[in-house]
Amino acid sequence: MNIIYLDTIDSTNSYAKSKISVLSDKTVIAANHQTAGRGRFDRKWVDLGDDNIFLTIVLKPSTEFSNIFSNFTQYMSVVLCKILETYKLRPEIKWPNDVLIGNAKIAGILAESVIRNGKFYGIVLGIGVNLNSNINNLSLITDKKVSAVNILLNVNNINKDLFLEKFLKEFFTNYEDFFSAGFKFIMDDYISRCSFLGKNIVVKFCGQDVTGKALGIDDTGKLVILRDDNTIQYICAGDII
Fold it and tell me: Fewer Cβ within 10 Å of end Cβ, the chain: N or C?
């Protein structure tokens, strides 16, 4: 594992994509500040200061695209939950990869495939974690309920370097096994942290709202919904709203 530390960058994912042809597998890009951080569906990720996590991992597990790559964000969400639990917190996962504590979002995760002229170069897997903030800064985020780890623990500061060390160790300890086995490797860990299962939900999928009961997660990571018309639908990508 090679770690590249940057001070200020537009986006660690954008940096990784621009350099992916020369970056080795398992290279980590860590920045103190992001000026144009992004989440899923091009949502803006607000920079709350240099004591927070802005991170991208470059992954080149094969020379061809594989369906398992769609599960990388789910794997990362489980890894983050395990680290947060070492701080005596109780995180939950909102499918597919949002990590929340007490209904407040703590992290954003974004995976992007890099394919140029038909050639697959790899995956850039980014994460932003609200590690340290204050109420005033959090109030700048108005489109969703958010929090930060230090606020939830009622402490002034969480050691960023220690958190990062724990996170990367956990990620790479089981990464090869996950890549070999697929979503089944994390299925139990993932489902045990999904609080929305068994409840009526609305999922935005392909520009439409799908309503129904969340029955479960299948062994490929898809969300299984019993729709209001009593049909079963498997959703591979979307957003619970």
Answer: C
Q: What is the pLDDT of residues 175-227, one digit of tens each?
A: 999 999 999 999 999 999 998 999 999 998 888 899 999 999 999 999 999 99
Give the span between the Cα atoms of 37 and 9, in whole angstroms: 9
| CA distances to 25, 50, 126, 177, 216 from 54, in Å | 19, 9, 8, 25, 31
Helices (H), 155-233: 160-173, 175-181, 187-191
Cα gap 53→43, rounded to integer Å = 17
| Single-letter amino acid code for the residue at 137 | N
What H or E segment, with its residue span, contains residue 218? Answer: none
DSSP SS3 for 138: helix
| Overall number of domains in the chain | 2
Q: What is the CATH number of the domain that holds 223?
A: 2.30.30.100
